[in-house]
Amino acid sequence: MTASQHTIAGTVLTMPVKIRKANQHMAMFSVDADAAQQMIDYSGLRVCRYLPGRAIVVLMLMHYIDGDLGEYHEFGTSVMVNPPGSNASGPRALQSAGAFIHHLPVDQAFTLEAGTTIWGYPKVMGEFTVSEGRRFSFDLSIDGQPVIGMEFRRGLPFRLTPRRQSQRTYSHRDGITRETAFEHTLDGVRTRFGGVSVRLGDHPYSKELAALGLPKRALMSSSVDHVQMSFGDAQEIS
């Protein structure tokens, strides 16, 4: 079977798109499920209610260093959702849940075009200020308007043998909800309970996060020194 291709800004990308090196900082929060559902209702998907009335929201900064889309920073707000047609609930439901991508600012034009065109991700242009001192921190603004700042305390090493894992994300653009399967390998993982402070700005994205009850204590936070990923084509699901 011939691999699919996409031409972005004059560059031909052959699927799957590969990320050879990236690093990651992530925080996971328990939020009101009804508030999270209201935020993503437009997608037609249902949040995963892992506890009665509770859902999981993940805030993540990625620094893609070497990959088919070039070097760039990306901030994501994702909500854990059930697969289409599923009403699963409870802690075990998270095992089959996927991540619906609600916010996805980036700082490079090529990945913005690729992300919106190929996968329907909600990429917009943002500006990042990153500090890698004793504590890792970053600030994101869009059109000069502060969105969010996060500061991470260093976690404890999480010993695991790096192995490739399969996951999926969901996106919604131009009235179409899409599912994208991807694989990743994580190496150099550190994690801890809590471990992150959040500052919200006055951008509309910030107000959406505030409506979820942020800033608040994270369930857990983590960092990953070396991430490898590969993304296939998006599949329309509605």
Number of E strands: 15
- Strand percentage lies at over 45%
Mean pLDDT: 96
Structural class: mainly beta
CATH topology: Acetoacetate decarboxylase-like
Shape: globular
Order of strands, widest sheet: 3-4-5-6-12-13-15
Helix/strand order: EEEHEEEHEEEEEEEEHE
Major sheet summary line: 7 strands, mixed, barrel
- Helix content class: 10-25%
How many domains? 1
Task: Give the N-terminus to C-terminus distance in angstroms.
Answer: 26 Å
Give the number of helices: 3
CATH architecture: Beta Barrel
What is the assigned CATH homologous superfamily? Acetoacetate decarboxylase-like
CATH class: Mainly Beta
Radius of gyration using CA atoms only: 17 Å
Model regions low in confidence, pLDDT < 50 over at least 5 residues: none
Protein name: Acetoacetate decarboxylase (ADC)
InterPro entries: Acetoacetate_decarboxylase (IPR010451), ADC_dom_sf (IPR023375)
GO molecular function, one term: lyase activity
Pfam family, one: ADC
